[in-house]
Structure formats: C-alpha cells, structure tokens
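Dear colleagues,

For the upcoming journal club I promised to circulate an example of a predicted protein-ligand complex. I picked one with tetrahydrodeoxyuridine because it came up in last month's discussion. The inputs are reproduced below in full, followed by the predicted structure.
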Amino acid sequence: MESLEIITKIKVYSIESCTGEKKKLIEKARQATQSAYAPYSNYSVGAAVLLKNGEIITGSNQENAAYPSGLCAERTALFYANAQYPDVAVSMVAIAAFNKGNFTPDVCSPCGSCRQVFVEVENRFDTPVTILMCSKDKVYEVSSIKEILPLSFSKQSML
Ligand code: THU
C-alpha cells in the first residue's frame, strides 16, 4: 500500500514583530472585530483583505437567529472585495478574533467553508493568498490556503 505524507508549512511569529503592510492589515482585522454582529456566539471575528491594487477591504462575522444563515468574517470580506473589484486579485488576508474582553489566546483559523472560498479566490485569479491567522500575541502565516486545505476540490477536479 502506498501512502502520501502531506506537510504544511506555517510561519509562526509574534504580532509585536510585524511591520509594514502586515502590521497594517492585522490592525485592520482587529478593528473589524468591533463591527461583528455576534450575539449568539459572542465570538467576534474580523478579516482584512489586501487587494493587488492596494485597497484594503474589511469584514466581520454576521450572525443570525437561524444560525446557518449567518456568515463568517472571511467570506463577508472576500465576497465584498470580489463584488467591488471583480478583476483584482487578493494578495493577503489577516484574521483576528475577540471574545471575553480580549483578542483570543488561540489564533483564529478559517473554517472549512471559508477555506473552500479561499481556494476559489486563489484559482479565480491564479494568485496565491497569504493568510495571517492572529491570536492576542501570535501570527500563523501560510503562503496559500492550499497549505491548510490540501487535496482541495476545485474546477480542476471536474475535468
Ligand atoms: N467565525 C468566523 O467568522 N470566522 C472563523 O474563521 C471562525 C468562525 C464566526 C462564525 C460564528 O459567527 C462565530 O465565529 C462562532 O463560530
């Protein structure tokens, strides 16, 4: 029997050490947590999307009494970015979460549905998206969603 080994590369560093556009994007994601509508989970997520044209679009989770009708911060931001700038690739996304009065002790990593949307965004523009998953003091960075969604399903799968 054959087996495949899948290796994920994640850079880990402190938020404090961030400079330039990463620092700015993380700050925007943190600010965006404040616009979350999360009365059911009390877990407020912010996402900041940096486009290739330099624009930054932010989004936050928007919950609903009918739970599945809500939407995560990442998809709120990515869909809005793609709707406003349908021809502009996404280059980087920062994600942060806030609950119990502070940014979270664990990094906020995208849920399965959001990962699938990241795959579509990367494939659509043929451009990998750097993802910065933040906690109160740390960043996990991947250079593509494919690092954390290996064997993903895409239009290639249907050829
Ligand atoms: N959530 C996000 O917005 N992004 C994530 O990466 C993880 C989860 C939201 C969905 C829901 O509103 C709340 O966080 C708790 O799951």
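Two points we might discuss: Residues 116 and 152 are 7 Å apart (CA to CA). Helices lie at 20-32, 73-84, 112-125.

See you all on Thursday,
B. R.
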